[in-house]
Every structure is written in C-alpha cells, then in structure tokens.
Amino acid sequence: MKKWFLIGLLLILSIVPVAAQGDPTATPWWNDRVFYEVFVRSFYDSDADGIGDLQGVIQKLDYLNDGDPTTTTDLGVTGIWLMPIMQSPSYHGYDVTDYQTVEQDYGTNEDFRELMTAAHERGIAVIVDFVANHTSDQISWFRASARGDEDYADWYTWSDTDPGYAGPWGQGVWHERNGRYFYGVFWSGMPDLNYTNPEVTQTMYDNARFWLEDMGADGFRMDALRYVIEEGRSLADTDSTLAWNAAFNDYMDSINPNSLMVGEVWTDSDTVARYTAAGSLDLAFEFDLATAMMSAASSGTSSIMQSRAANVNELYPNGQYATFLTNHDQNRVMSQLRSDVDKAKVAASLLLTNRGVPFIYYGEEIGMIGEKPDERIRTPMQWELVATTVGFTEARRPWEPMQSNFTTANVATQTDNPDSLLSHYRSLIHLRNEHIALRQGEYVAVESGSRKLYAFIRQHADETLLVLINMDDAPITEYGLVLAAGSFTLGTPEVIFGHGAVTPLTLTAAGGFDAYQPLTEIAPYSTTVIRLASAG
C-alpha cells in the first residue's frame, strides 16, 4: 500500500516539472505522462442535448484516472488534450471567433475552471488546442479587415489581384472577398493571420496569457504550426515561422515555466526535429513514427520499427517528441487494421513501451472504427451496449450517429474482460506509470533472429527493461537476441508484463548478450517486458 501511495503522490506532484525545482538538465514533467486526446463534442453529454460538453468530461474523469493509486480499473492516463473548446461556428472548432470564451455548446468558462480543478485533483494535466495560424472568417477582426477598417487592415494578408500560386499540397490559397484576395492556407473560411504585424502577435500573447493564467491550463497543443509566417512563396517551415514559435514558447514560459507547448508539424521527421532543436516547441508530434508503428502492426514486420525508431531517437534530445497512432484527422487505428484486435494490441504495445510522450485518441482503447469524412472519425464515444445512443447521451440521438461496431467496441463490454483491447491499454498504461525506464529511459536496439520479433531495451539509472513484441500470428521459438555491448549490472531477470519463465542470462565481457532466448516460446501477438536490472 505504501508503494502505491508514493506512486500516486509522485504522479500528482509531477504536475510541476522537475526543471522548475532547480535542475535544468532533468527530464521534463511531460515525459512522465500518457495523454488522452478528447473531442468534447463526442465524449459525453451531461445535459441530454445530444452534444458532449465539459461537464460530461468531468463526469467521466474517473474512467480516465480516478485519482486512487491503489486501483487499476481506471485507464490510468495522466494528461488530457482537449480539441478546440473556444467559441466557433463549426462543429470541430478549428475556426475560432472568440479566443477567450468557451464554445457555448460545451458550457462556460467556469465549467472549464471546474474541469481543471477536478483533473488536477486526480493528477491529470490538461492542455487545450490553440489555433494560432488562422481564425474564422466570421471573427470581428476579419470582418473589419475585409471592409478596409484601418485598425485591422493588415491583420490578414490581402492582394488587389489574385497572385495565382497554389498552396503546399496544390490547393488554392487565395480567396476573393469584396473584390480583393486574402490568403488562407486551408480554405476560405479560415483566413491566415498576418504575424508580420506585431499587433497580431500581441493579441495572441494576450489570449495565451488568458488560458494559462486566468483559466489555469497546463499548456497548448498548437495547431498548423508549419504555416504561421510565409516568406514570399515559401509557405511552410520558414525561418520566420520557427522564430515566431520560439518566441511564443518563451512567452508561455514567462507566464508559467511549467507550461507545455506541443505542436502539430505534419511533415517528415527531419523537418519536425528542427522545431524542437530551435526551441520552437517543447514537443512535436512524430508523424513518420506513427506511420511506422501502424505499418509494422499491419504487416507484422519488425524492421519497419527498428529503422524508424533508430532514426527518431537520433533526431530528438532526450525523448522530446510526442508519439501517437492516429489522431482526429486520420482514419482510426481499427479501421486501418481491418478490425483485427490482435494487431491493435500490437500497435498499442508499440506506442506505450517506446520512447517519447504517448497520446491516445479517444475511443482508440476500445477499438472504435472510423473512416473519413472527418465527422465519421470523430463519432460519439461508445460507453455502453445501447442502440442509437451508446451511453453517450440521454437525448434521442447524438449529434453524429455511432459506429457499427458499438456492440463489441464499448467500455461496458470490455472493462471486465481481461483479454479485451481496453484491458490491454489499461495494463500497459499502468505499467508505464509504474516504471521509470518506460517513461524516461534510453532506447537501446536489440537484434533479433526473427524478423517478426521487435526487441529493445529501455534503460534508466534505476532499472533496465527488455521489451519483446511478437508481431505475428504464430509463436516464435528461435529468435536469439544480440546486444553487442551494455552498461547495466545484471539482476535476476523477471517477467513484469506477460507470461513465462525467464531463462538465466550471462553477460558478455562487453556487458551485452549473444543468442539469448529469455523465453522458450513467445506467444502470437504477445508483449513481454522483462526486468533485467533494478537499482532497488
């Protein structure tokens, strides 16, 4: 009981980053987190209007983390990312009309403050989506700019004639309004702000301060960061964009040194890494790694992960990147894996045992399906085996119909089934919370004699763990593991996740091992974690 109490206390205290306690070289607090992405509209409806809301999130916090470290029935996540919750005319909220007011469908500013209090009581950090690149075309700023108001004339980028060039993926970016043309990288309803105007930057600083200081948010997920400032026809990843993001990050830290800035930079790893190297972001989402995890789980081939993990760990300092499988802009995991639960478990294992800071898209842990259009990958959370409403609402119908697999992909059906996908996610998250090597440890590749076995070590000063993931539908019996050299003192190897008796290990003179087979057989689609060494 004492051990679990201390673990829970540490999780709650880790809302405050270690670096803020006087050690600037320490691993940041977010590396001790597993985040959960919530689309409020689809999570839980508290007032029976068919639309999810902030009070609904509060009511379901115990599902995410009940705040009691002695229980393992909660999911165990220690961070939440809320998709846009600011006033907007759209269902998704990525076109903001009021940056300091909670979307009326979701509740009030006071509801958000109540959520922050309830989350922090459970040791959960909360970050909110901050859409800085563009606004809604219905915001007062743009309307004033479009009619030529001197105070807002250059808050957006205008041209008297159509410049004619296309955007980063071949789309039209110049849109006509009142006989002139404005720049909007996504579409005409989302005009890009002009950050060469210092008044625009100052306004966004004021909005950031409001959320960090007045509302108590722990940080931001920054949307569409590649496109903040254009340099002529160079529209993405410009030096001006990186500089602006770095300054914004510094401003956030001046308000709250504990704040997290994680960014969407949807492009190749080499480009993404520029943002963390330049201090433009604390964390950036690793899209190439996400693709590799999904490809590896689908194909059952470990080499995909081995090469991508090696590349990513060379690019970023100390695990400072955000990992995920899919998000709100992509077809869901289970749809991509053709509803194969075993492969979905493999994907979860890849996400939750690897380095980086993991983010889970709501419903992923129960295997919700969903393919574009976007509304169909953002459908209501499936809580219960109830036709039409799936336990999401007491209204006759939810804002968007549920998915067809709700009969098996729901929380109620899976929660007490030890073999369910939900149980697998839950067990892995709790395992990660309990073991510092999984949260903060180095990643060390291990060679395997089987191309279906993904093997690696997570090593921290306090413990060394060997992770084995069988990515195939057949057992593996011949797979000799090779580690050329190691730097840990061997303890008595023991399985801490999975099953099987461990074969004794003898280290080579270089501290590694050769042709080591810790288990006689590795079961199909299984994940095994073996503790090789522990400081305690």
Main structural class:
alpha/beta
Strand content: 15-25%
The termini sit apart by 17 Å
Total E-strand runs: 20
Main sheet: strands, sense, barrel: 8 strands, parallel
**Count of helices?**
16
- Identify the overall geometry: globular
Low-confidence stretches: 1-22
Strands of the widest sheet, in order across it, are 11-10-9-5-2-1-13-12
Helix amount: 25-40%
Rounded radius of gyration (Å): 24 Å
Overall residue-averaged pLDDT value: 94
Question: Could you describe the 3D structure shown?
Answer:
This protein has 536 residues and is α/β, with parallel strands linked by helices. It contains 16 helices and 20 strands. Helices cover 29% and strands 16% of the residues. The strands form five sheets. An eight-stranded parallel β-sheet has the order 11-10-9-5-2-1-13-12. A five-stranded antiparallel β-sheet has the order 14-15-16-20-18. The chain is globular.
Task: Summarize the helices and strands and which ones pair or pack.
Layout: H1 2-13, E1 35-38, H2 40-43, H3 54-59, H4 61-64, E2 79-82, E3 86-87, E4 98-102, H5 109-121, E5 125-130, H6 140-146, E6 158-159, E7 174-177, E8 180-183, H7 198-214, E9 219-222, H8 239-255, E10 260-263, H9 269-277, E11 283-284, H10 287-299, H11 303-315, E12 322-323, H12 333-336, H13 341-353, E13 357-361, H14 411-414, H15 421-434, H16 436-440, E14 442-445, E15 453-460, E16 463-470, E17 481-483, E18 494-497, E19 513-516, E20 527-534
Parallel strand pairs: 1-2, 1-13, 2-5, 5-9, 9-10, 10-11, 12-13
Antiparallel strand pairs: 3-4, 6-8, 7-8, 14-15, 15-16, 16-20, 17-19, 18-20
Helix pairs in contact: 7-8, 10-11, 10-13, 13-15
